[in-house]
């Protein structure tokens, strides 16, 4: 499965599986719970007080057994049980499917004795990363939790505190208080992981405590549309609901990933957050409870073959700057729309997916060199990295008669801006796209705003027509389009 098809496939976070007791069809919604079977091998329980040791015999190219690895590593994996308080909702689709359902739903919703809220429970997994009780798991496992309980391999339970969360990478750190040292896992190096390497997942799928599965690394660097810092390890080691937050180990017994997502309709397709993504974030989560990220202030996009042709460049490497946020570090440094970032702080930028994590990991206030291509010439620009706001007030947007090109255009007007929920006064609105036209093939949509034609600003339909007529290449057109407060380039090619 390639990157594009992955992005178009619905990715499912491994939220806890909820089981309904079949004999109690009218039981309160708060009793939808996930439980695991009790009972763990005594060899695991007795080893909890020992520091985890992995021998060289586990480092086989083709392992004959994972028994020793599983026995040594299982004590570092925990079951995370979460209690949440949620609003009762009587507008469930199944209620409305019943002709009397909506009536009873409205009746009970307004009844003074009906509970407005209910308690729900779910479960995930986690891995102990320090002897004093710090645990790494997924953010979506503990988000909005009222109570968190951690169960060790010997079935001893501890109340856990959510120390820090990072929704952007779906990571969280918990802390339990215990008088003894806990067996902790070693964090490995996911960068050294290769496609085809053996890996082992340990977790609590469907509440089945300490389940061990094995497989190989199917791919690295997967972008699945989960967030701005997508860089997942794909594996065919079985991962199911309840595995969320559990570790993915290599054959040295090192944690190389945190299991987090699956494709529901796929088999043998699971995704883990590389441990190299987590390692620099853990100290911040422990010390501050949140992550401070670097901020550049650009909207970027990947350079396709069509874009490269429209821009007059030979290579598709680098991140194309589609827009520069006003008063941002990028704007103050002199970065411009149309620049191609090929190196950031000494690190090569292959495409737009490479840049976000590198910017975010840069300390706020550091001055770094950004190498760009501008009008075919390489140029180095110093930039002082800013701080990415955590409240969403500013963010990086890393991303994406109708005439000859198949577009029906209209001047911006108050009525049009209200109809399409537009927040701009610059450009020309697309109010129609002809199916099968060059515009349709390029992905132009009704409601898009054309801001530039062949890299020249436009304010009216006349400007658009002049830009098209003055183009030297009559078969290709380069538009700068604004959609949902983000700008990106779109190359159009005339149909043959």
Characterize the structure shown.
17% of the residues lie in helices and 33% in strands. By secondary structure, it is α+β, with helices and mostly antiparallel strands. It has 3 domains: 1-26 and 40-78 and 124-291, Thrombin, subunit H (Beta Barrel); 294-398, Pdz3 Domain, CATH 2.30.42.10; 407-493, PDZ domain (Pdz3 Domain). The strands form 5 sheets. Strands 16, 17, 18, 19, 20, 21 and 23 form a 7-stranded mixed β-sheet that branches.
Number of domains: 3
Helix share of residues? 10-25%
Q: CATH top level of the largest domain?
A: Mainly Beta
Could you tell me the radius of gyration in angstroms? Answer: 27 Å
Shape: elongated
Count of DSSP H/I helices: 14
| Low-confidence region ranges | 1-10, 15-51, 90-110, 391-395, 397-401
Biggest sheet statistics:
7 strands, mixed
Question: How much is the average pLDDT?
Answer: 78
Give the amount of beta strand, in percent: 25-35%
Based on DSSP secondary structure assignment, what is the total number of beta strands? 29
Structural class assignment: alpha+beta
In whole angstroms, the N-to-C terminal distance is 31 Å
